[in-house]
Amino acid sequence: MAAGKLIYGFEELGQEHKKLVGKKCANLGEMTRMGLAVPPGFAISIALYRKFARATGILEEISRQVNKLGQLKGRNIAVFDELSQKIRGIIEGKEMPPEISKAIASYYEGLSKKVGATDVAVSLRSAGTASRPGMFESYLNIIGIEDVLDKIKKVWSSAYTARAIAFRINKGVPVMGDELGIAVAKMVNARSSGISFTVDPLTGDTSRVIIDANWGLGVGVVSGTGSVDKFVVDKETLKIVKTSIGKKTKQVIARKRGVGWGEVPVKKQKVPCLSNQEIVAVAKLAILLEEHLGQPQDIEWAIDADSPPTKNISPLQTRPAKVAAQRKESVTDRMLDLMVDKFYRP
Amino acid sequence: MAKKKQLKAKIWDEAPGYDYIAEIDLPEMRSWFLDGTHSIPPLTPLYGYQWVRFCGHGLKFACTELSIPTCRGWELRFLRGGIYCAFHIVRDKKEIAQREVRFRQALRPWLEDFEGLWSGYRQELLGIYAKLRELDVDNATNLQLHHHNYDLMQAYMRMWEIHFVGMYASYNAWLLLEAMTKERFGLSDQDPQFQDMVRGFDNKIYQMDKKMWQFGQLAIRMGLEDVFKKNKPQSILGKLQQSAKGKEWFKQLMDYMETDDVGGWRMRRSTDLNEPYWLEDPGTPIGLVKDNVMRGLSYNLEATRAEMAKKREAAIADFLKKVPAGEKELFQGLIRLSGKASSYSEEHDLYCELMVQALMRRGYLAMGRRLAEKGAIDKPDDIFMLNPDEIDRVIMVPEGHDMRWLTRRRRAAWKEWHKKPNPAVLTERASPEKAVKLDLLPSGDAVAIKTIIGEMPQPMPKLKADLRGICGCAGEVEGKARVVVRYEDLKKVKAGEILVCPGINPAWTPVFGLVNGVITDTGGTLSHAAIIGREYGLPTIVNTQKGTAKLKSGQRVKMDATNGAVYIVNKQTGKG
After folding, report:
1. CB contact, 8 Å: A207 with chain B?
2. Most CB atoms closer than 10 Å: which of A143, B37, B389, B439?
3. What CATH number has the domain spanning A7-186?
């Protein structure tokens, strides 16, 4: 990588760049390299955040706020709330230095040109170097450079939500220990979206792919609210071994700007949001990623309504799957759990 | 309500407090299920009394000690020589959750060190038995015999406590492995591949079988082959006494029976007291030796066994290849544990029922002789027609009593019970199926579901089988049926036949070396017949319900054990 380079196209990145741009961006790069239908985009490196921090002097300001409070461990959540508000205010209140905004703007324009739009709608997702699933903020359907720059600051500042601060303090990580890269990618016009696990997160069964899906954008599935469609595919035979169609009354859809919850038309509520071919294709994608990355994966994907059927499955992120049953417990504990669960729960 | 019950209740008979009284017991428990494995043939009153009291206690003990979440214990009742079971089901979710916490604590040591715990309990039992054996029952005073009655009951009660704690622990392990292999790999415990993984272990049953094989080899090498080959088991002993070699051989057999930790203290049949134990009648082990002599010197039991162990290791390795890395440790642990469970299932009968009952038979027969000498009963084995309280009443002053009014009446009744089978279910529910669904299955009780009641075969009309059951051990075989309902008839079994019987206990193992297949009326995949069938690699079908009724001795039958299907060949050729 060229020294001094602070922004990278996904196609320039791979797994080896986790420290440079955060895990999410590195994995998007890796998937792009694999030839998967990753939406085009670019990664804002962690170094760029540092440059922003240095140029604006926020680090000193944040330190002052933190030091004022003294010992933080065990403090009331209200203290973290107040600290969070102050720090996020500091970050979001800073003007983006012109050098940085120019660089970002050029990548944003490049992306717009590439997809043939004036102002391409993008998603901005946080990308840290440590695994903090769901802890930081993402912004979807952001249009125009002004808004993009604004949301970039918001993603950065989301490293200081009360929850994130409390988490770091409890884990003994420095308060300023999370610095975020950002993946800026073209918004997918998602007809349906979902997540797939190449290991059953509840039982640890690795012989199947578990798929949850809903109409619209993936946030609707990830947030875990409302019922969704569930599919289980056998990895070896690629047969759909289990299907459960949820009554999907709500979906997340793109508004003029941003996204929001909307009603699912009654006609579509009880209809599977994926065709059988799509289910198998989603499973194949998951298996491919697991094999390529060498461990069970948790993948977010969308069915792109604007792409031809064979190329319409876009991976939006992938990460090592967290399995409840893989928590450190002895075989005896697992046997006891399973016995109680299988034999004695009427 | 209590007053009404009092008016209706009849007087207890064979098993005071535990005789089945429909007016009282039906409203209380709703449904009662016949323990078919242990109720055919009908139990003698003495044994029936001991069983309902102490086996029932053992089940409650185990359900309490292990805190089985959904079952507080079983209730047993005695009716016409049959044992009926009902279940104290826990239906309140909160209570189940509370019991669950203790269940985990109580079961954990068994999962971590099954062999260690079982070996400790085994030692405890052997200690109890050694103490019982110290009494010279023939020269004991009446007072000593009176005490012995209580010592025997105490021993029998403790035996059942240990028996069921071990059994619940082992069944939970087995059932979990079965559920997991079925769910993940579509492999049920009726599948050959599953069965191959949990057999061929070294345990006491095998060690004793091996000893009988070695005595067979010894007899051939000592030039006694013809004595065994040409005589019936009962007359072999007399012939052996006619030669120095024969005497020497028999002395070695007796040495083994007297010095081994189980040895000759082994009942021929695990239920009831009315058949001899080995030391009492060496004809039983001699019959086993005879079977081995017939097989000749070239028959190598150890090699067969080693082959099975090799096959087991290969089957496990093969299976584990299918198991994803993250699950390997779990499945390895489960397979290892299930092997222990399977071994326990096989050998616990020796240390539990077969041994304590040999001592009970010895003690009670001595009491019987004491009573018969004084004319209180007609003959020593009439003692089996009395219950321990009645024995207690007369044993101190036998000459002051005449109990024949009771023993004769009871013996006549007992004979009568043989004529008509007990119904499988007594219930006030609409149907037996409803009874099973409402009053048995919710107990979640592994022992009840897996052994006593057994699973029912999936209907498969396409097979066009004459009889269906559950696969105990996979395989196909054709041969002449031999229907055996009583142990005495076991001696009629010839090599190559297919044994058809109500149910089986380890005392029947001798014929497993002889027959080519086994079909039983009762039992599940963990019943004795299935376990022993697997050990011997014999096609075995269990829980056919009506095998002994439908099949006739001499009929040619074909077994497709893998599918639990039996075909009557005669009938088919007759048609064609």
Report:
1. yes
2. B37
3. 3.30.1490.20
